[in-house]
Amino acid sequence: MTTGCPTPRGGRGGNRSDDDDASNDDDTSNDDDTSDDDDTSDDDDDTSADDDDSTPCAGDELPDCNGNCGPAKWLGDDFCDEGGPDSLYGDINVDFACAELSFDEGDCEAGGDDDDSVDPCAPTSAQLACGIPGPVVGGSGWEALALTVPLTPCGQGIEAAAPVVRSLPSGVVSAYVGFTGGTGSQPALNHLAHGGGSLVTTSSNAFANSGGWGVSDSHTAGVVMPMTPGTGPQSGCLLAWPEVGNAAGAGELLLTVRPAGSTNDIIQLNVAIVSGSGVSVSQLEPALYEAADLLYYGTGQGVDLYEAWSFFTVSDSSFAFIGSGGAPINSLRQTMLGSEARAINVFVIGAFDDSILGTAGGIPGPLGHQGHASSGVVVAVDPHLVNAQLDATYFAQTLVHEIGHYVGLYHTTEGSGSTWDPLSDTAQCTSSNPTPSGCPDGANIMFWTGSPGDTQDVLSTEQSNVFISSPIVQ
């Protein structure tokens, strides 16, 4: 970075800074955080967000070709269950006629007249219509679900899964849908529909590709609803057709649902200080209190962080100075912290190799799901030092900025001055050199850059609504 230029908070991947490591209340530490991308380390009592996920079917049921639950005893019972009226189970026409279920264990003919299976590489328009709802997610309260889906090679390095169908409950507040093919993969939600089949996005959707939905990102592709006014989730059918390049094993569809009901309007943080980052809990706490005020007043007293944080320590000092991409940061973000799936993991490190302030795992990140290479945000200490002391205000602004990315907010103006967020009530700066002092959105928390002494404490109404309605608000 050229001397004298404002410090970048990150580009379209949500870079600004990752949260720091902090020791927990009992001063326990994570074990063996130096393992490869697939390895994570926990405190002894830590659990994964995905640990809460259980099979969506009862013990005497199994998922059919579309992810709906059907009677297990119907599989291989000398009758071809191909999704027709003779295979009605409750309100679901059970379809076992696909390769994954050996075409109903041989009851249906592969490629024959009675083969109504889904081609994962080219499902029909009828199979993407979202006409028949699947099992309800979030019907009994907040729920985070992770479904392993088989991938089929489709040519040109692309693999796809058959469309997955679930249902959202009446009065649903918000939802997150994500897909990952493993560390280093290039996932996308090729088609996403809800309600009576209303299209949320496709891979060719211009709004999606402009950044409005964040449909493709490194490691995890994700969509949060609502993102803008009028884009809230609809009750009823939810259908996702995912695909991925460079897949590492089977894919995983992530679904998080916040149903109707009262909350305390709290976003919880798991703050992990990495050993060697050069900051202590007592030095960090003033910045956390300032971050709580920024979010509370910025959202019109809609969301709060106040003392909704727990401290942890990542003992492996090799994570203290890392790049904003690559194996080390992926491994760090896979670290499990605490047992609350809705908490955002904040890793505090010493510095990034590329001198950014922080980075978020995605826009949005995998809300409600820990243990992924894109889970959490990372914030660096060194670029926030002024006269060798941590500038609490500067650090707080970066932290809230990265949390904003994680829940789904983009930079109001990017560093080029030619790309802006999809929200209608945030100002745009058209300067080729957008700076906080020279742009109408320079005081916005989500402006692309900032420096010590800048006051960036503004959130628009639409930005605030993304925070307030987030699936992880408790």
Description of the structure:
With 474 residues, the protein is α+β, with helices and mostly antiparallel strands. The chain folds into 3 domains: 7-49 and 265-468, Collagenase (Catalytic Domain) (3-Layer(aba) Sandwich); 67-117, no CATH class; 143-258, Jelly Rolls (Sandwich). It is built from 6 helices and 27 strands. The protein has helices spanning 102-105, 206-212, 281-298, 327-333, 392-407, 461-468, and strands at residues 7-8, 15-17, 29-30, 61-63, 69-71, 88-89, 92-93, 143-149, 152-155, 158-160, 164-168, 174-180, 186-195, 198-202, 220-225, 236-245, 251-258, 269-274, 309-314, 321-322, 344-349, 351-352, 358-360, 377-380, 385-386, 389-390, 449-450. The strands form 8 sheets. A 7-stranded mixed beta sheet has the order 2-23-24-21-18-19-3, covered by helices on one side. It starts with 6 loop residues before the first strand and ends in a 6-residue tail after the last helix. Mean pLDDT is 83; it is low at 1-54, 111-116 and 203-217.
CATH topology term of the largest domain: Collagenase (Catalytic Domain)
User: Which consecutive residue ranges, at least 5 long each, have pLDDT under 50?
Assistant: 1-54, 111-116, 203-217
Largest sheet: 7 strands, mixed
Output the number of helix runs. Answer: 6
What level of helicity do the residues show?
10-25%
What Rg, in angstroms, do the CA atoms define?
A: 23 Å
